[in-house]
Amino acid sequence: MPTRRALAALLALPALRPGPVLAQRAPRRSTDADIAFPAAGPRAWKAQLPQLRVGLLGGENEADRLGRFSEYRALLERTFELPVRLFPASDYAGVIQAFGAKQLDIANMSPSAYAGAWLDTNGGVEPLVTTEEADGSVSYVAVMVARADSGITSIEDMRGKAMAWSDPNSASGYLIPRFSLRRQGINPEQFFGRTGFAGGHEQAVVAVLQRQYDAAVTWASGQGEASEGFSRGALRAMVEKGLIDMGQLRVIWRSDPIINGPQTTRVELPAAFKEDMRLFHLALPKAHPEIYRQIERGGGAGYREVSAADYQFMIDMRRQEAAERRRRN
């Protein structure tokens, strides 16, 4: 079981440590001058991957997800000259299970979902790149929101009230808030009067607005104006789609930084395919900025290479959470 100090280190977000594959050089970034978008044309790896299957993590309604990723899908098809299918999952578990069943080839995962897939496949998934924020960081935060008219202004005001988690496989929507609150001396099982899973980030926020819960946790970049839904994240996406007005909500708590989730693929797939996927994403913000903005729900600096070692703390936390759940049962 990981030590308390090791788990705290995740939330402190140390600088990215290159894993064994990247040990001989610094991680490549979208801002590097020599990053070029892959030339269009068929690839030798197409013999093993006649169709590219892209998983779309839950947390947003299916129609909106398919719409946001439609141009991304078309760009993949034009670049690598093969059919690309999008597979939107109803929740995070759907993508995790699809990787385990080898029904997906790549997906942008949350850090907790990646760790879950890594555990479910016994290390059979591999991170390629993660999102870099506008300030050069590779982190985001969990935020807890309540209705602005609720009278709830701090975490202490949530004692005995109803709390909505976004998804059991979400870092910001479940795992990190629970760990962070325990670190503050708050036992979520005893502190809140009622808890439940809303079925996704959008659903959790809507449940608060509809007074089904008093507060919910979701993800945000932690940068930019909270009154605008921050620069990137679930709240910003909902503001842009006209689903919410941030004047309806109040941010009452936020976590320490959490490492952004990775574009994830299967370890067994060809090395040339993985390199093409790295370069496709690293070059995407400059080559196709609007497609980048659509899939990332807002602006940022692009992507940065990562390795499995960068997510080891999250894997350890998932193991700890599973062990505690078994003890509770």
From TrEMBL:
Keyword Oxidoreductase included in the entry's annotation: no
Gene3D superfamilies documented for this protein: Periplasmic binding protein-like II
Phylogenetic classification of the source organism: Bacteria, Pseudomonadati, Pseudomonadota, Alphaproteobacteria, Acetobacterales
Family assignment from sequence similarity: Belongs to the phosphate/phosphite/phosphonate binding protein family.
Top-level lineage group: Bacteria
UniProt keyword list: Signal
Originating organism: Belnapia rosea
Any single biological process term in GO: transmembrane transport
Annotated SUPFAM superfamilies: Periplasmic binding protein-like II (SSF53850)
This protein's name: Phosphonate transport system substrate-binding protein
A GO-annotated cellular component: ATP-binding cassette (ABC) transporter complex
Signal sequence region: 1-23
